[in-house]
Amino acid sequence: MNGEKILLGVSGGIAAYKACELVRRLRERGAEVQVVMTENATRFVTPATFQALSGRPVRTSLWDEAAEAAMGHIELARWADRIVIAPASAETMARLAHGHASDLLGTVCLATDRPVFLAPAMNHLMWRNAATTANVALLQSRGFRMLGPDRGEQACGETGEGRMMEPAAIVDALAKWPLRSDRLAGLRVLVNAGPTLEDIDPVRYIGNRSSGKMGFAVAEAAQLAGADVCLVAGPVNLPTPAGVRRIDIRSAAQLLAVMLAEAPGVDIVIASAAVADFRVREIAPQKIKRGPEGIHLDLVPNPDVLAEVARLQPKPFLVGFAAETENVLEYARRKLAKKNIDLIAANDVARPGCGFDANENALTLIGAESQWHFAQAGKFELARQLIDRIALCFRSRS
User: Fold this and answer.
1) C-alpha dihedral over 149, 151, 155, 158, to 10 degrees?
2) pLDDT per residue over 229-279, tens digit each?
3) Would you give the end-to-end CA distance of the chain in angstroms?
4) Which is catalytic among the residues 109, 156, 230, 354?
5) Peptide bond before 314: cis, by omega within 30 degrees of 0?
6) 393 catalytic, yes or no?
7) What is the residue-wise DSSP string for 77-120?
8) Is 72 a residue whose pLDDT tops 90?
9) Domains and CATH numbers, the chain
């Protein structure tokens, strides 16, 4: 992003305060930032704040005689390499969807041929409203790019989807946008990631060390490759990749239910979740008290989620993961045949610096007749390589 010119549009909403950090982070990456504020945005943050952070005078009005004497809104539209609107309120998106040009920001967006990115921020009911849904679909059909929104606690005290993406995540998404391709264009991809947790009582559970980082990277890489991506996530502390639809689950049973509901009609399923192999036969209704005899758990097998998905007809193209600590390739090949899937990615989680909770990994992708090794690298870079190979295998099968 070094040297890139970014016009940052700030619309009216409490999330406008986050745009201050966004300006700072963009400038840290070497971008020049020009802020354009709507009138309502100035009620939340003063233009002086953005001027101090950006180092440039803030534009707020079409009726600035000095700026508009030379058709300043056209000049702004031509100056920018990219336009980012964060936060993008429901009102602002509605106005953009219907081509309104009664304020400076709307006029600049109409007058530009540069990429425009929207980071929505609103109450979760406003986000799910049919009018907002229709406006988002219309904007996307016209080439606007969506960044988020995230799910979480909102300023109104409620919880749901509609939070503006965090500034760091927005900057990362903007930096990765040039990596986009059409390798999976027009395809629907379903990814699962992270651990499942199996409750023992209201306090304790059986779990594993999966952080979900690899699966989230795969979902992001698939989205950047042009796919329509749904990510089914176990309990992890990770932001949703831009443009990805996310469903949260906790247990293996919940994961199975969501996968069977989402998989029909999907082209590719990539199952990276570390699903617990066992659960307790019966969850204790109260906390089990500590005693001198210890505790004996009656464990029963969990369903094999990927094998169940493989029984669907028509069967999607299936990619599994095999996290092993020994005989990694041998065990992975057994799973490939047993589960009736197309590819399996084997990773040695005992290898130092790789696997669970690490930022790097190394994988061997195995098919019925071929295999490909991906050397140790950051999980996002590894995910990009993996998606490229999966796309080639899918296209060759089709």
Assistant:
1) 140
2) 999 999 998 888 888 999 999 999 999 999 999 999 999 999 999 999 999
3) 38
4) 156
5) yes
6) no
7) HHH-SEEEEEEE-HHHHHHHHTT--SSHHHHHHHH--S-EEEEE
8) no
9) 5-179 (3.40.50.1950), 188-397 (3.40.50.10300)
